[in-house]
């Protein structure tokens, strides 16, 4: 009788790389994203300003992501290297400066950690200076007024870990004036981006400072209704996985 050939017990690993793109380029025209010249990742729904989107398209080193607005080339990002593990690859397109309309990119590879990770990115271009702060929503009562127990600064161009819970992120001026506020529901093993957006343009329209947090989850997703204390915000720098190509 014919015997089947033995099957090998060593197989190559396939890693899942999820691409997360955020459009922080201030413009009323949404952004189309292509892989190469023809594969339109955004399909029939271009990515609006202040929005982020996850793409499951498998990436390989050498891939080029083309960004277009209204059919015109905006910029190109080349994937230079990919991690040998499952990862979320964050790519943020934004304004290079307040004078020109050129684009710039920020990129980061999120490590596979059990805690929630938050990448903090400042894409604002202009004279106004603001800091981002994260506050837990474990509230202490002072009469009829509820105040957050604790807040810490989120340093730009860094990645921090936070415990699961419900938080608020606030943008404050040097004088302590609140510029923007939004919620962050931190879940285990999730990767988040907090961005300051806007431009005080010297050519074209200006856009005010705003905060963007992505992704957004319902607080009901938390196992406990009470937010836990902030984890130690030991910041690490953003780790790039590609390079900008001249258009």
TrEMBL record:
Name of the protein in question: Uncharacterized protein
Superkingdom, natural source: Eukaryota
């Amino acid at each position: 009788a014919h015997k089947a050939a033995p099957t090998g017990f060593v197989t190559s690993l396939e890693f899942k790389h999820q691409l997360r793109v955020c459009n922080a380029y201030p413009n009323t025209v949404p952004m189309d994203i292509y892989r190469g010249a023809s594969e339109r990742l955004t399909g029939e729904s271009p990515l609006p300003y202040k929005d982020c989107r996850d793409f499951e398209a498998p990436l390989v080193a050498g891939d080029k992501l083309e960004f277009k607005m209204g059919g015109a080339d905006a910029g190109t990002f080349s994937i230079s290297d990919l991690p040998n593990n499952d990862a979320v690859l964050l790519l943020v397109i934004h304004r290079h400066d307040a004078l020109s309309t050129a684009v710039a990119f920020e990129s980061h590879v999120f490590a596979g950690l059990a805690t929630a990770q938050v990448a903090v990115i400042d894409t604002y271009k202009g004279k106004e200076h603001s800091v981002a702060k994260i506050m837990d929503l474990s509230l202490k009562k002072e009469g009829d007024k509820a105040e957050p127990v604790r807040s810490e600064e989120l340093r730009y161009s860094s990645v921090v870990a936070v415990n699961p819970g419900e938080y608020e992120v606030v943008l404050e001026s040097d004088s302590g004036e609140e510029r923007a506020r939004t919620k962050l529901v931190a879940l285990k093993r999730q990767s988040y981006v907090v961005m300051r957006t806007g431009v005080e343009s010297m050519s074209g329209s200006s856009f005010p400072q705003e905060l963007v947090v992505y992704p957004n989850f319902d607080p009901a997703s938390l196992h406990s209704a009470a937010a836990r204390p902030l984890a130690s915000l030991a910041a690490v720098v953003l780790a790039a996985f590609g390079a900008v190509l001249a258009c």
